[in-house]
Specification:
This protein is mainly alpha-helical. It is 78% helix and 0% strand. The chain contains 18 helices and no strands. Helix 2 runs antiparallel to helix 17. The chain starts with a helix and ends with a helix. The C terminus is likely disordered.
Amino acid sequence: MLKGILLLICFIAIAFIAGKLVARVKLPAILGWLVAGMIIGPHALGWFNDEIMNNNWFHILINIGEVSVGLLIGTELIWKDLKQSGKQIITICVTEALGTFLVVTCAFGFIFSFMGIPLYLAVVFGAIALATAPAPSISIVNEYKTKGPVTKALIPLAALDDIIALVVFFLVIGVVSSMISDVRIPLYFVPLMIVIPVLIGGVTGFIAGHILKREMSKRMTLLSTMVCMCVTAAVGIFVNNYIMPKPVLNLMIVGVAFAATFANMMPKERVQDIMKMNMPVIGLFMIIVVLNLGAPLDYHLILGAGVFTVIYIVARALGKIGGAYTGAVLSKAPKTVKRYLGLTLLPHSGVSLIFTGLAVNVLIGPDPESATIIQGTIAAAAVINEIIAVFLAKQAFKAAGEIDGVGDGVLEDKEAAGIYN
């Protein structure tokens, strides 16, 4: 364990340096973290290997990291602010999710109908495509201190998007498993995927709110926040591993609920002070989470990517961008949200790989050919899409004028003020 921890510290240092080097050429530091993860991961140098990633202490660390990512999202979900833009966010989220599901499902359904591949596999692809990995875009928001309509829309969408993805995926895979497989994923899992994380985060967040709203020293504030966050992660891990039939709870949603609960119990200024004190620790966990995203990605798959991978990446992008644009138009969102929000929703790898593992587990017995297709396609797409998506997300924030004040966002300040500021 000690050796593994020392190695992880070295890996964090490598990722940090890679991030700084990438930042020098005006690209997001997270791109450097991802590439560093791939290079030191098991498919390249093999330093960050399966022995470390499969260790219990590392799983616990990643779970705490997922809760910390939830902190960045949850502390922005202030109820009185959300009441102003809630309908717009929900509209965009529904159209973006529905658009992605339909475009990906129809694209693969059309191709599979000519190839004799079961059409239910197209629906599984559509369900996996819904997932958005919030860490990359949230990292860019944090790194560049982005501010504006696109950022304000993205943060709650990052939470809602994964909730909808969980519901749709487990409904789809539950139906498919009941049709073709002996591996049964019960449909009562679906509400549990949402209710239990929110309940855990809500309870621990309520307790944390009573502790953190008191005036205390910076050191005590930092210590109290970290203790509350670790307790929240511990409860989530225990429920996930020892109470749930399968360990599939999303710890990021636990973190979002935890942070949103305590953030709504105190003045906004106090929340900002708490987050400012905790940002160095949260930033450290962010690097660890992104390293964990990058390490399993096999760069060899870029060269071996086939037609299915291209179809998946393009169809998913069209669904995300087109769906977000449609929702923004219907809800009369600012022009920058219409133009650029969809590009910030393209990062994908973390949740998609979890969904893929579950789908392969269901399909491998009754339909091994379909299991191989889905595993190879998503694995290759995760590598290619993640690198492209991080670059495009940064460009979207820049074009919207939310990084350096240069772009369309400068012209949208008055239009957005009544809704997003």
